[in-house]
Each structure stands twice: as structure tokens, then as C-alpha cells.
């Protein structure tokens, strides 16, 4: 297929681009390099440096599908500077969707997030769970999900929103290198490499097994491969919303143990204040992904740590 990947110079977009190229697709990456890296784009992908806001200049009817990763994605930043999230994630996505409609591209796969659910009190979050985002990042992604529902109804778009839980790991030379790193696994690895002295554990008085927050950690390669399956499952006139997670939750302490095991380093950690806005438990039901996509995760927390550790040492 001929595919346009927005945000293909970023972490998840670059891994997805690599997997799609290796599966034989013809990929063009559109990225403004605001947070991505030019050398993270697979060498066999074509590259356009542009904002999604200017998608109309670059999208034409020769594409079979658009995969839309380009977004701002820091929860804390979204609370402090919400306007950045409306402008980039909402306005930018609308411009892209308009370009897709005008060009007659039939399929769109969108990077949505568990943050659209907010802080539900269910043990396993499925797609029928009410969407009540608690920060502008989650709100901006939910707004785009809603645009896609309407676009499928009005114009027959085949749309799939994939709601990611906690993504980690790397794929060879493609991995996570954010200027501002807020995520748990890369931050623990910065301590293992010696770049930082100690890790911070944000709160140990949550109502969980050991008091630290529980998350569902999914390997970025498993996540990427779900996008290839979503291209096959996309159906004209339908907007499908599908969670991507493993269905298993790990506490922050579990992840710390896994990093100590996987790196062989001590990784000193201190207890810190709770981080505002962190829900206690977020674990996905992936029954719909299994049913609709025929997808199942093949890698676990130890693989995430091992692959991210190899990447961090490069
Ligand atoms: N944490 C620490 N120390 C750190 C970093 C994180 O204790 O240095 C804790 C957090 O408090 C949280 C857990 O580790 O309990 C995971 O935190 P991350 O920042 O790695 O991930 P989040 O669960 O906050 O965020 C992820 C995605 C977001 C998405 C969100 C959905 O990265 O894009 O899930 O709720 F919005």
C-alpha cells in the first residue's frame, strides 16, 4: 500500500514506519521535526518536512491510507499550556482530515490514548468505558476520535482509533529519545546509564498491591504491528475504536525491579510526591483488539526493558 505517516520521525511513528516499510509498504513520512529526529526516519521512507496543518499541500489521491501519529503528548505540559494542544492536536488533525477528505483518501488510522478514559474505576478498561479525560491532552485526542466518527458517517471514511496504554521498548535503532523525558522506563534507564543519580517514585500510598500506580506496559513493536492489522480491518463508513494493551498491570515497583534485573544496575530510587493527575490503575481489556484485528501481544515487560536498555546504551 502507499501510506502517509504523520509523525514518523517520533518514537512510535518511527518504529511503525520501520515495520510498515519492512512489510513491503511504500511509506512517506510527514513530520515538522518539532520533537522528532530526521535520522529516526527509516532510510527507505520518503520524507517531507511539514506541519500537519499544511497537509493539503502534500496529501493526494494516490495514498491508500494515512496513519496519524503527529501530536503533542505530554500530559503535564497540556495542563500548563492547553492552547498548544488545541492548536497542534485538534486544529492540526482537522486540517489533516480535511485534506484526506478533499483528496479522497479512504482510510485513516489514528493514535488515540487511554487518557481519553480519564481515571475510570474499572479493573479492566474496555471500549464501552465512558470517556472522561482529566487533562487537555486526553481531551484533544478524544476530540479527534469524535471527528473521525462524524467523518466516517458523513463521508464514508474507514477510520480506526487505536487507544494506546503505556508504550515502551525499542526496535533496533528506533526508540525513545525525547528532549523532555517524563516516562517511567526511560527515566529509570537514565539512572542505569549514570546520566541521572537516582529515580523518583511518584507516590506509594495508592490503593494498589504495593501502593504505587499500576499501568499496562505494551512493547512498541507489538503496538506497531497492530497498525498494519488495523489497515486490513478498516471498513468504509465505520469508525472503530480499539484499545491496545496487554491486559496485565505492573506497579512502579515491579518496573523498577524489572529494570534492575534487565540492566544489572542498582538503580537507586527515592520516594517523591504523587504526580498530579495520575490515576491509580490503568489496565486495558484487549478483547476487542483480539477479535477485530486478530492481534495479541507477543512481548512482555522484560522484553520492553531489554530492548529499551540496548537502545539507551547506543
Ligand atoms: N512514574 C514514576 N517516576 C517517574 C516517571 C513515572 O514514579 O520518573 C510513575 C507515574 O507516576 C505513573 C507511572 O510511573 O504512575 C507511569 O508513568 P508514565 O509517565 O511512564 O506514563 P503515564 O501512565 O503517565 O502516561 C501514559 C502515556 C500518556 C497517556 C497516559 C494515559 O504516556 O501519553 O498513559 O493515562 F496519556
UniProtKB/TrEMBL annotation:
Keywords: Carbohydrate metabolism, Isomerase, NAD. Pathway: Carbohydrate metabolism; galactose metabolism. Residues 4-245 form the NAD-dependent epimerase/dehydratase domain. Its EC number is 5.1.3.2. One of its GO terms (biological process) is galactose catabolic process via UDP-galactose, Leloir pathway. Its cofactor is NAD(+). It holds the Pfam family Epimerase. The keyword NAD applies. GO terms for molecular function: UDP-glucose 4-epimerase activity. It comes from the Bacteria. Homodimer. PANTHER family: UDP-ARABINOSE 4-EPIMERASE 1 (PTHR43725:SF53), UDP-GLUCOSE 4-EPIMERASE (PTHR43725). Belongs to the NAD(P)-dependent epimerase/dehydratase family. This is UDP-glucose 4-epimerase. It comes from Antricoccus suffuscus.
Amino acid at each position: 500500500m502507499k501510506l502517509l505517516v504523520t509523525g514518523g520521525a517520533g518514537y512510535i511513528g518511527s518504529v511503525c514506519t520501520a515495520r510498515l516499510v519492512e512489510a513491503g509498504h511504500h511509506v512517506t513520512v510527514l513530520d515538522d521535526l518539532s520533537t522528532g529526529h530526521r535520522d529516526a526516519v527509516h532510510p527507505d521512507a520518503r520524507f517531507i518536512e511539514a506541519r500537519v496543518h499544511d497537509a493539503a499541500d502534500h496529501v493526494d489521491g494516490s495514498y491508500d491510507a494515512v496513519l496519524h501519529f503527529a501530536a503533542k503528548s505530554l500530559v503535564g505540559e497540556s495542563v500548563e499550556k492547553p492552547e498548544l494542544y488545541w492548536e497542534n492536536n485538534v486544529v492540526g488533525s482537522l486540517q489533516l482530515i480535511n485534506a484526506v477528505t478533499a483528496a479522497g483518501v479512504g482510510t485513516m488510522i489514528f493514535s488515540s490514548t487511554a487518557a481519553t478514559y480519564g481515571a475510570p474505576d474499572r479493573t479492566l478498561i474496555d471500549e464501552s468505558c465512558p470517556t472522561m479525560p482529566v487533562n487537555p491532552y486526553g481531551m484533544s485526542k478524544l476530540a479527534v476520535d469524535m471527528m473521525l466518527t462524524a467523518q466516517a458517517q458523513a463521508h464514508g471514511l474507514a477510520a480506526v482509533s487505536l487507544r494506546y496504554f503505556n508504550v515502551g521498548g525499542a526496535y533496533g535503532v528506533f526508540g525513545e529519545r525525547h528532549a523532555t523525558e517524563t516516562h517511567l522506563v526511560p527515566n529509570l534507564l537514565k539512572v542505569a546509564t549514570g546520566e541521572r543519580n537516582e529515580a523518583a517514585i511518584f507516590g506509594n500510598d495508592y490503593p494498589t498491591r504495593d501502593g504505587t500506580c499500576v499501568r499496562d506496559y505494551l512493547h512498541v513493536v507489538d503496538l506497531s504491528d497492530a497498525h498494519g492489522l488495523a489497515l486490513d480491518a478498516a471498513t468504509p463508513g465505520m469508525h472503530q475504536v480499539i484499545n491496545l494493551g496487554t491486559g496485565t498491570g505492573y506497579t512502579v515497583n515491579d518496573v523498577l525491579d524489572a529494570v534492575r534485573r534487565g540492566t544489572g544496575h542498582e538503580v537507586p530510587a527515592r520516594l517523591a510526591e504523587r504526580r498530579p493527575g495520575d490515576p491509580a490503575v490503568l489496565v486495558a481489556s484487549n478483547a476487542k483488539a483480539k477479535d477485530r484485528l486478530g492481534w495479541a501481544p507477543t512481548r512482555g515487560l522484560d522484553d520492553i526493558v531489554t530492548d529499551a536498555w540496548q537502545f539507551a546504551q547506543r
